[in-house]
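Good morning,

Attaching, inline, the backbone tokens for the sequence recovery test we're adding to the shared suite. The designed sequence is right after.
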């Protein structure tokens, strides 16, 4: 197995862990009766899970071994409305670094297909960091007493986006097809 394949298997774990953390954040907001925030993070959880499955499909297509890892339990308690979003933004920044490292490893190994594959994820991470930073600024401005304004913001931006960016052309196929 190449260093790139080993690192991709590690990233599968990172993506599943990110998915679990987003479920935990969604549940937190669900328990606070903030359905738009909860829905946003449930969708993010599915997106991260699908990223893991895209990596799995790449490994399968490349004839490499796939390791489905266990992940650490996510953080489930938060103080304040902004803390879960701040955690999510930090997570997205960490993932961007991981994806950048994967692209670098593919380049170092001369794996042009792997490097090109990682290009989609790099573009996705730019969008993820940007949208999470905007959400964090919105939550911080709204404060505890005005979180319903955040709910309105998410309702408006979700409708304007018309669905997930992952539905776009050029997204890698996830293992298991369109689940």
């Amino acid at each position: 197995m190449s260093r790139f394949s080993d690192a991709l298997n590690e990233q599968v774990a990172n993506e599943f862990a990110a998915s679990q953390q987003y479920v935990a954040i969604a549940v937190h907001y669900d328990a606070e009766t903030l359905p738009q925030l909860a829905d946003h993070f449930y969708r993010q959880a599915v997106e991260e899970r699908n990223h893991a499955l895209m990596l799995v499909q790449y490994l399968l297509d490349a004839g490499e071994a796939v390791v489905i890892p266990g992940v650490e339990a996510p953080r489930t308690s938060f103080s304040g409305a902004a803390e879960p979003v701040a955690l999510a933004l930090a997570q997205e920044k960490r993932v961007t670094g991981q994806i950048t490292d994967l692209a670098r490893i593919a380049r170092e190994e001369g794996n042009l297909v792997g490097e090109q594959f990682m290009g989609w994820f790099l573009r996705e991470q730019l969008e993820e960091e940007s949208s999470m930073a905007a959400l964090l600024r919105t939550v911080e401005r709204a404060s505890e007493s005005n979180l319903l304004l955040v709910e309105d913001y998410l309702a408006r931006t979700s409708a304007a986006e018309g669905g997930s960016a992952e539905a776009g052309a050029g997204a890698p196929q996830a293992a298991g097809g369109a689940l």
